[in-house]
Structure formats: structure tokens, C-alpha cells
Amino acid sequence: MTDTTTEGFIAPVPMEEDPAELFAGDSGTLEPQVRLVLVRLLQRRFLLADRHRAQWRTLLENQQVIESRLHDLFVHLVVDHERGVAYKRQVRSAELEVPVLLRDEPYSRAETLVLVHLRTVFQREQGAGEASVRVDAEEIEQTALTYFDADETNLATRQREIRAAVTRLAKEGLIEEESEGRYRVTPLVEVVLSNERLVELRSWLREQEVTR
After folding, report:
1. How confident is the model at residue 7, as a pLDDT?
2. How far is CA 136 from CA 10, 111, 163, in A?
3. Which residues of the chain form beta strands (DSSP E)?
4. Which residue, 109, 112, 122, is CA-closest to 189?
5. Which residue, 90, 124, 143, sits at the end of a domain?
6. Which InterPro entries does the protein's record reference (predicted)?
7. Cβ neighbours, 10 Å, residue 169
8. Same domain, 64 and 119
9. How many angstroms separate the CA atoms of 52 and 194, rounded?
């Protein structure tokens, strides 16, 4: 009897074992978990290694193809291994007219004031050799309030704005609540607010104090 199973020939895969469509008319080529990471990168500001371990692993294993898909949309992928964070940036070019997909959502004044304080504390404590940096909600609020007009009469409104700012920054992963009113400042503050930008904002705040 002749053996028809010889090297060099690959046994055909039964049709029922072909990858199934994820939805009607699906022509995508990425595995479901890779698609989910791609969507998350587009939806969220950051993908954090310590919060999303499985997705982080999928990102690293498929970084080249995910980068390619984002480049098709004129979007850069930044993977910061040291800080354990991945995020996207809009491609901008003087030589090429690039359609803008990503719309920057600016921080409000209260959010900026809180961010400046967090970044300042993080820089100071890291410089002193502290491995982890923590702040209290009351400290954040009182510091941010000092930047508002001393004659501000609607204190309750300002307090609500500052608390809402803390909530947004916590949602983005810049701070993590460890216990009620106690937060750990994450290295993301360095990504969001560079040292150069911090210097600019501090200078602007000092000017505001002088003109009061």
C-alpha cells in the first residue's frame, strides 16, 4: 500500500475548523483579543500594565500589527516599558495634510491646578528617593484653592470643581485611591505633564498671584 502522507504535504484543514466570523460580514484578520486591545487604545487615554495585565501582554505580543493598524489612521503608538503604560498620539506633519482623528480634551482650570500639585509633589518625593508618592484629598483641595481669587465667594462651587477634577484624574489612572481620601500618585503624571510644561504652568500661576 502506498503511503500518501509524505513530508512536504500539509493535510487540509476541515472547513468547520476555519476561524469563524465575529459578526456578519466580518472581514477582519486580527484575533478577537488583539482587536479588543486595539479598540481599548482608541477608546481610552492609557493602557496600564498593572491594571490590564492580559491586554498588556497581548499588546506586547502583537505590537507590530497593532502599530500598523494605528498608523493606517495616522496615529502613533507609544509603549513606555519603564512606566508600564501605552498610549496614542496624533500624527502631525508639516509636509503632509493629515486628517485629525484624535481630539484633545483639554483639562479644566481646576483639573490643571490639581495636576500641577500632583506633579510637583511627585517630582519632590521622587527626588528625595521615595519609591511611592501619596497625597491626601484634603491637601489637594486646600492647595488648589490657594490658586483661586482670595475674594472668591462661591467656595462650595470651587470645592466641587476640585473634587470632580480628582475624580477625573483618578479615572485616567494618574492617582489611585488606596483608602478613603488617600491617593497614590502614579508615574502617569510625568507622561501627562512634562517637566518643561510644569515649569511653564508654575510661572503662569506665579504671575496670576502677582496680578491679584
Report:
1. 46
2. 64, 16, 12
3. 47-48, 75-80, 85-90, 133-136, 175-179, 182-185
4. 122
5. 90
6. JetB (IPR025449)
7. 23
8. no
9. 24
